């Protein structure tokens, strides 16, 4: 009989950022959450919706964003694969990087660990490498997890928020 590692059967706690700037943005976010719960993921808590200008082109439609804390038995690679299916189901078309999209789901944190795994031509890195510069991730994450710490540098979320530019601090609105 093979004895399985205790950690192998434990649920993973993750944070996902969900955004949309095309179509019915609020419906796209709510549909993303419903589809996540079918893969199976349990959403433990969801932030409010935050409105931010599109980046890098502020002339594109503004984004609605949320962060959700989830629990899942899926490993990082499988979760990533399932998230990509949800984005496609909701009409995301991979065009030019940072172009407008109906659904964008990023894995922000996976069990509070630094991880990097290859998935086809992509490299999945958690915590998300650009999350520390993104107001649309930090504000909703702070709303739902005030004591969160960045796994790579152990900086708490308040410190990360203080390092945002003044423009980042003034262009985000909770709706």
List the helices and strands and how they pair.
Layout: E1 12-20, H1 25-36, E2 42-46, E3 50-52, E4 63-72, H2 76-89, E5 104-110, E6 115-119, E7 122-126, H3 135-144, H4 157-162, H5 166-170, E8 173-174
Antiparallel strand pairs: 1-4, 1-5, 2-4, 3-4, 3-8, 6-7
Give me some keywords for this one.
single chain; 175 residues; alpha+beta; Alpha-Beta Plaits; six-stranded antiparallel sheet; two-stranded antiparallel ribbon; 5 helices; 8 strands; 27% helix; globular; disordered N terminus
Describe the model:
- The protein has helices at 25-36, 76-89, 135-144, 157-162, 166-170; strands at 12-20, 42-46, 50-52, 63-72, 104-110, 115-119, 122-126, 173-174.
- Strand 6 and strand 7 form a beta hairpin.
- The relative contact order is 0.20.
- Mean pLDDT is 91; it is low at 1-7.
- The protein is an alpha+beta fold and 175 residues long.
- The chain has five helices and eight strands; from the N terminus they run βαβββαβββαααβ.
- It has one domain (6-174): Alpha-Beta Plaits (2-Layer Sandwich), CATH 3.30.70.560.
- The chain is globular and about 45 Å long.
- The protein is 27% helix and 26% strand.
- Strands 1, 2, 3, 4, 5 and 8 form a six-stranded antiparallel beta sheet that branches. Strands 6-7 form a two-stranded antiparallel sheet.
């Amino acid at each position: 009989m093979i004895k399985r590692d205790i950690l192998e059967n434990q649920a993973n706690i993750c944070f996902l950022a969900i955004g949309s700037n095309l179509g019915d943005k609020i419906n796209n976010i709510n549909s993303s959450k419903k589809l996540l719960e079918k893969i199976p993921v349990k959403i433990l808590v969801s932030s409010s919706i935050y409105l931010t200008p599109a980046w890098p082109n502020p002339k594109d439609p503004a984004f609605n964003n949320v962060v959700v804390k989830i629990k899942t038995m899926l490993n990082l690679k499988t979760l990533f694969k399932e998230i990509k299916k949800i984005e496609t189901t909701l009409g995301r078309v991979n065009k030019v990087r940072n172009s407008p999209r109906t659904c964008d789901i990023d894995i922000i944190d996976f069990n509070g660990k630094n991880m990097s795994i290859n998935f086809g031509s992509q490299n999945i890195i958690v915590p998300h490498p650009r999350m520390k510069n993104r107001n649309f991730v930090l504000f909703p994450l702070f709303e739902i997890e005030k004591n969160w710490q960045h796994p790579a540098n152990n900086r708490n979320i308040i410190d990360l928020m203080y390092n945002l530019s003044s423009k980042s601090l003034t262009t985000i609105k909770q709706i």
